[in-house]
Design a protein that fits this description.
Helix content: 25-40%
Structural class: alpha+beta
Shape: globular
Low-confidence stretches: none
Radius of gyration: 14 Å
CATH class: Alpha Beta
Distance between the termini: 22 Å
Strand order of the largest sheet: 3-4-5-6
CATH topology: Trna Endonuclease, Chain: A, domain 1
Number of helices: 2
CATH architecture: 3-Layer(aba) Sandwich
Number of strands: 6
Order of helices and strands: EEHEEEHE
Amino acid sequence: MHKYRAKRTTVDGFNFDSKKEAAYYGKLNLLKRSGEISFFLRQVPFHLPGNVTYRLDFMEFHKDGSIKYVDVKGMDTPVSKLKRKQVEALYPIKIDIV
């Protein structure tokens, strides 16, 4: 059992850390099929000082050329908040939490 009660889930051959993340993946697939987004990427790495990597859950590419950065969290820990602030300070992006 995961310490935050997240249940690892597999969808379309991809492993997700939680049911919530897998459900968001399903939503993105629907948006892609309907044409609302062009495509999306999973587990996008951002490199931080000290040989630390922050992995973003999803990067959505919209038809209008905009990009949405999404992290799916059931429990937003102090460590994840710190890493997210570091990414936003080093890269010109804003990460949305779902």
